[in-house]
Structure formats: C-alpha cells, structure tokens
Amino acid sequence: MKEKETDRFISVQAVADKLSCTEHHVYYLIREGSIKAIKIGPRAIRVSWNSLQEFIAAGLIDPEDYFAPDDPDPELSSNIKTLYSNWMKR
To answer: Which residues belong to any copy of the Helix-turn-helix domain (predicted)?
Structure first.
C-alpha cells in the first residue's frame, strides 16, 4: 500500500518567523488564499506546512531576471539623463 503523506500544521507566529514578516501579514495571506489554514478553536489558527512550502516555492525568483546584467547596454545608458538640482551646481 502507498502511504498517504500527512500534512503538519504550524502556528501563525511560526509562519511569521519563517517568512520574516508580521503576524498581521500572515493573516492577510490566509484571507487572500495564498496560504491554507485551519481553525482549531474559537481563536486558534494553524497553517498548513505543505501550503507554506508551496507559497515559498512560488515566490522564488530567478537571479538572472532580478539583478541587472553585468554588461549594460551602452545605447541604453546614453539615453539616461541625470537630473541635478540647483544646490548641486554651487
């Protein structure tokens, strides 16, 4: 028989610590449906570990797309004008 993978559930505070954000932001992510959570009592909410991992994986960036290339296009840089305020001319 194939064993079914079980999901762990962690607190909102633990998710906030893992994502380096506030608990308020974690609640926002839950409300918008980005992270799945369950209610285990009148006030207690737990977040699905698998859902959190999927959220993190979906947000990964490709460094080549994120950072500027090492060799910028010289034609592009010649079109960029630098603006100076009057106090810099003194």
So the answer is: 11-58
* Region of residue 82 (phi > 0: left; psi between -120 and 50: alpha; otherwise: beta): beta
Partners of residue 37 on adjacent β-strands:
47
Q: With contact defined as beta carbons under 8 Å apart, do 31 and 47 qualify?
A: no
What is the distance between the alpha carbons of residues 29 and 13, in angstroms, rounded to a whole number? 13
pLDDT for 12-33, tens place per residue?
Answer: 999 999 999 999 999 999 999 9
**Which letter does DSSP use for residue 79 in this model?**
T
- CB count within 10 Å of CB 49 equals 16
pTM above 0.70, yes or no: no
Instruction: Delimit the domains of the chain by residue range.
Output: 9-89
Which two tokens mark 31? 């409300």
